[in-house]
Design a protein that fits this description.
By secondary structure, the chain is an alpha/beta fold. It is built from 4 helices and 4 strands; from the N terminus they run E-H-E-H-E-H-H-E. The longest helix has 17 residues. The radius of gyration is 14 Å and the shape is globular.
Length: 106
């Protein structure tokens, strides 16, 4: 029903692997759930999906990302964290009126 909030779930392979469960739990009206999970993607690589979903004005946004940022091992932990925080801050600004939840493994 349209009284349910539009929910966006944006994440990496953990989201992809959980997509069936997420859909089963959050979908009573298919057009109220926006869902993408990208295997191996870092937070920065998910930017286009974030922008696409922001244009659809969800009321709730769940970010599940960051695992691949850490597991690449390309930078020091401090550099990785700073880059992740920068990405998430920019993503959050794209959803000024939404309840935003960020989670990752750890």
């Amino acid at each position: 029903s349209s009284s349910l909030p539009k929910v966006a779930v944006i994440g990496d392979s953990i989201t992809w692997l959980s997509a069936t469960d997420i859909q089963a739990r959050l979908t009573s009206d298919g057009d109220r759930l926006l869902l993408t999970g990208r295997i191996g993607y870092t937070a920065a690589q998910l930017g286009p999906d974030v922008t696409t979903f922001a244009r659809q004005h969800p009321e709730v946004v769940l970010f599940e990302m960051g695992t691949n940022d850490v597991t690449t091992g390309a930078d020091t932990p401090a550099t990785t964290l700073a880059r992740y925080e920068r990405e998430m801050s920019g993503y959050r600004r794209q959803f000024p009126h939404a309840c935003v939840i960020a989670t990752t493994v750890g």
